Amino acid sequence: MTFFIFLLACGAAASTGFFFKPGEWYESLAKPGFTPPGWAFPLAWSVIYLLLAWAGYRLSLMPGSQVVLALWAAQIALNTLWTPVFFGAHHIFASMVILVVLWLVVAAMVVMAVRLDLITGLILFPYLAWLCVACALNFSILRKHHSSASNRKHEAETGA
Predict the structure, then answer these.
(1) What gap in Å lies between CA 118 and CA 62, rounded to an integer?
(2) pLDDT bucket at 18, cuts 50 / 70 / 90
(3) Among the residues of 61-91, which ranges form H helices?
(4) Checking phi first, is residue 30 left (phi over 0); if not, alpha (psi -120 to 50) or beta?
(5) CA distance linking residue 127 with residue 124, whole number of Å
(6) Were both Cys, which of 19, 20, 32, 55 would link to 140 (CB 3.0–4.6 Å)?
(7) Which fold has domain 2-155?
């Protein structure tokens, strides 16, 4: 039963992808060459959400796991928040801030999970690795978007 509660929380986070799709806005953004192909995102997130639910379940069975479970709850909330901020509101900077905080929470969660149970920590590691890719991608988009916005402003001011 407990596993399904964690799976339901992951499903709620995943459902934001159905409501806030990448669409034309995302396609129009300048993205780096290391951007994964579109099909990789739902595949990666499906695996990550299953691993997250499994790790949450394992942690719930361990004594002394209250803090790491609080981090689990914080990361699923932040994870759920990122998609509507980036794909819905198109706030690249705010989504970057969310992603950095999410990365810090997940890194702390992985460290604490490893201390409680090595296997559970290893189950969470792919999530942290994928967040590194997501952070690099979000940052690259932010930098390119900010740079092109600055160029447009400069051109408008100078008439160039």
Answers:
(1) 12
(2) confident
(3) 66-83
(4) beta
(5) 6
(6) 32
(7) Ferritin (1.20.1260)
Q: Is the separation of the CB atoms in 10 and 96 below 8 Å?
A: no
Q: What is the pLDDT of residues 21-42, one digit of tens each?
A: 888 988 999 999 999 998 999 9
> Is the pTM here over 0.90, yes or no?
no
Give the position of tokens 């890194």.
107
Nearest to 52 by CA among 126, 133, 131, 136: 126
- Quick one: which of 45, 159, 57, 76 has its CA closest to 117? 57
Domain ranges across the chain? 2-155
